[in-house]
Specification:
Layout lengths: L12 H19 L8 H15 L3 E10 L21 E11 L2 E11 L3 H24 L3 H15 L2 E2 L6 E2 L25 E8 L6 E7 L8
Antiparallel strand pairs: 1-2, 2-3, 4-6, 5-6, 6-7
């Protein structure tokens, strides 16, 4: 556990929270630019203006914006480049940004127009995140147990759970030098402010899904 939660000598929890807040600000800046007809590549290009305005130092993982049917795809699956945001549709944004030498990683799903089922899916991803985080706080479950719980709850709520998403470490950049691995393979209880809980679900039969992620141990921000 100690090795998997190792951080660098410059690690500062206050700077971690600053990076998180700035990354959420960037996500909502991109959300303001999303409009009917926009494609994912165009949205990623416009995101660069948002990042510059916030003083981002660099990316630590590629900008992921998934629209429509692409919201069911996993992190490593390629999007259909022909998909564009429709009038009654949904999309999610997943950002990994560096501010002041520390990593932020957040994600959320949004709906445009009138799409009640898609809105229910987006709301369910947030609800599931909250339930898992609350269980971690109350029961001190291991990372592995948290993802077992998330899978069971998603099924009970009527959604398909993406088992390829397992959460991960954050820290001062680059956290990868410490090889913290996936939250979903952690046999101990994760410490607050170091691990990202990722939730991705999808409709059991329709081609849309939802994604939400944030640090464990912090208050979830309202959409």
């Amino acid at each position: 556990m100690t090795d998997r939660e190792a951080v660098g000598t410059r690690f500062d929890p206050v700077r971690m929270q600053h990076a998180r807040a700035q990354t959420w600000a960037a996500l909502h800046g991109i959300r303001e630019r999303m409009r009917v007809g926009i494609g994912e590549e165009e949205a990623r290009h416009e995101a660069l203006d948002v990042f510059r305005g916030l003083g981002m130092e660099r990316l630590w993982h590629p900008v992921i914006i998934r629209i429509g049917a692409n919201t069911t795809k996993t992190y490593r699956q390629r999007s259909d480049p022909n998909v564009r945001l429709a009038e009654n549709d949904s999309y999610f944004i997943d950002l990994g940004l560096v501010f002041d030498g520390h990593e932020g990683d957040v994600g959320d799903t949004f709906v445009v127009g009138h799409a009640p089922e898609r809105q229910a899916c987006a709301d369910a991803a947030r609800t599931l995140f909250d339930e898992v985080a609350r269980t971690w706080r109350s029961d001190g479950l291991s990372g592995r147990a948290l993802y077992d719980f998330a899978s069971e709850r998603a099924q009970a709520m009527g959604w398909r759970f993406n088992h390829a998403i397992k959460g991960h470490r954050l820290g001062d950049f680059p956290h990868s030098v410490h090889k913290g691995g996936d939250l979903g393979t952690l046999d101990g209880a994760p410490s607050p402010g170091l691990w990202v809980l990722e939730i991705q679900i999808a409709h059991p039969s329709e081609p849309f899904g939802a994604f939400y992620e944030d640090l464990l141990g912090v208050e979830r921000l309202a959409p």
